[in-house]
Write a structure and sequence with these properties.
- There is one protein chain.
- The protein has helices at residues 89-100, 103-108, 127-141, 147-175, 181-200, 208-215, 219-230, 234-252, 257-263, 269-280, 284-292, and strands at residues 2-11, 17-31, 35-42, 45-49, 52-56, 60-64, 69-87, 122-124.
- By secondary structure, it is of the alpha+beta class.
- It folds into 3 domains: 2-124, Sandwich (Jelly Rolls), CATH 2.60.120.10; 177-231, Arc Repressor Mutant, subunit A; 237-292, Orthogonal Bundle (Arc Repressor Mutant, subunit A).
- A hairpin with a 2-residue loop joins β4 and β5.
- α3 runs antiparallel to α4 (147-175) and α5 (181-200) packs across α6 (208-215).
- It is globular, with a radius of gyration of 20 Å.
Length: 293
């Protein structure tokens, strides 16, 4: 079921596909047939991957592998703008093969090209990735039809994602103090579930026990390994997330300070103001005025 405000689908000759949609209400279930990256530019999209629930916010994006059972729901007073990029099988295989091998191997062309399986989760939507995707959407909204240029954008989208994956996964694996690679990989997958749960439920009264249960770790194991991988505790990650999302609300909405405090999960306005000033070296109201000016 969908009630659309605006929607367009751009399918290229190499099977790469882009879908942009702005809607207040949507509900669909499907088996994802292509490697897909999903973005939300405003509002929230509630998703489920293989019975695992999470929410995509404007500061995150989600990765879904081909063949994954996927469902999505949007239920909002204001239109939610979503944007997804799906990659044709040959395009993603060739990119992964090119990115992962030396020039000598590429010239020899002896290795079979495989589709990469990635950790399906939320990743930070910022930096070059954000710039590239927003610029692509802007061009498509203006009627861009040049497939060569669009594919260049999609190439850079993958390139930026691989850099983010390296930072968020590969480098984090090296920080975990386990000898066996398989153990490190399993622990990081569970920590990813913990981060995903915090990001999706940041405005609720969640506990360490809730987070540990989602990650299938004991509380103490969660605390030790989370700090190893991300260099901050789960609580510090939660507070940082709440402050950044409060900052965005101050910048883009007319909600009062007290309303924002409640929306991001803080209970006390005075502690929120103190934490905000300590983190950003400016009070929330001064920050809002500076953005307006």
């Amino acid at each position: 079921m969908r009630i659309n405000v605006m929607r367009y689908v751009k399918e290229l000759s190499n099977r790469n596909k882009i879908i942009s949609e702005s809607t207040c209400e949507a509900l669909y279930e499907q088996q994802n047939d292509a490697y897909t990256i999903k973005f939300v530019f405003n509002g929230t999209e509630d998703c489920e991957i293989n019975k695992r629930k999470f929410s995509i916010y404007p500061d995150t994006f989600a990765v879904v592998n081909a063949g994954t059972n996927f469902s999505s729901k949007i239920d909002s007073i204001n239109p939610v703008n979503t944007f997804s990029v799906s990659f044709g099988e040959n395009f993603i295989k060739d990119f992964h093969h090119t990115f992962s091998n030396s020039n000598e191997s590429l010239l020899a062309e002896k290795e079979a090209k495989e589709t990469p399986p990635f950790i399906e989760s939320l990743y930070p939507f910022s930096g070059d990735m954000r710039f590239n995707v927003l610029h692509l959407k802007s061009q498509l909204d203006k009627g861009l039809k040049d497939e060569m240029l669009i594919n260049e954008y999609l190439y850079h989208c993958l390139l930026n994602y691989y850099k983010i994956y390296d930072k968020e996964v590969a480098q984090k694996l090296d920080k975990l103090s386990f000898i066996k690679t398989k153990t490190r990989e399993e622990v990081l997958k569970r920590l990813t579930l913990a981060k995903e749960y915090i990001s999706s439920n940041y405005n609720k009264n969640i506990t360490l026990e809730n987070i540990a249960e989602q990650a299938c770790l004991s509380v103490n194991h969660l605390l030790r390994t989370f700090k190893e991988a991300y260099e901050i505790s789960p609580y510090q990650f939660l507070v940082q997330l709440r402050l950044n999302r409060a900052k965005k609300l101050l910048q883009t909405t007319t909600y009062s300070l007290n309303e924002i405090v409640g929306l991001v999960g803080f209970e006390c306005p005075s502690s929120f103001i103190r934490l905000f000033k300590h983190t950003f070296n400016i009070t929330p109201l001064k920050y809002r005025k500076s953005r307006l000016n």
